[in-house]
Amino acid sequence: MLGQFQLLTISEINAEGAYLAGGALGEVFLPKAELESHLEAGDPVSVFVFLDSAGHPTATTTKPLAQVGDFALLRVKAMNSIGAFMDIGISKDVLAPFNEQKPRMQEGHSYLVKLYLDKASQRICASSNLNKFLNKTPANYKPFEQVEIIIAAKTDIGYKVVVNEQHFGVVFFSDLFKRVYIGQRMPGYVKQVRDDNKLDIVLEKPGMEKIDGLSSQILTALKNNGGKLPLGDKSDPELIKKHFNTSKANFKKAIGGLFKQGLIELEATAIKLKNQ
Asked: What CATH number is given to the structural domain containing 87?
């Protein structure tokens, strides 16, 4: 299949390279420079298949940055009259046509795109118009269900994210306690499903599981700092965020639990291990 990394069998080797059995694609050419010397006819080889500039099926053993069907952050290498050419880590760039650009791309900039096969030309293309690929199925998520997210864009209210490669969501600035960047993949948690199928997402694990994990971090930090930290339930939220990448509310719940267990002593702007 075009645009995919796959295992093909060598059918013939000549001075220019090797021809691989490509099934419905017919013979797929692998240049000699990419053919390992020990390989022979009949051997399998892992390759990425694409069409060269003349439209012939061609293979490379170099693993690309993304395959057809993938979302990926790609950089624009050049622009011309038909669109933007983006680097996917192999000798052949992929085209993002102007009608697939949202926003309009600029040379040297990187964009989150989805790779697809153009039906007419069968060439690998890229689209930053992600709306056409998402929200096609109902958003059947439970509150605080864990999902995989890709940071897609920064907005006035937070970060737009792609959820499980199927739906759009947003992480509001008020729920963000660590730095993120476009194209970053990470786990997230569904806060709520809106009527338009879009999702409100948080990055912190909710409930006691999150508090237990934070409690462990706090105890470790205390032990590494002589048994005392200059943070308490009256401390500045930004200071708490800087140290533990969490909200003041979660921090207060965690130190409250440690206090009830008799593990720490509380002060307005400090905590310390018991018996320190």
From this structure: 2.40.50.140
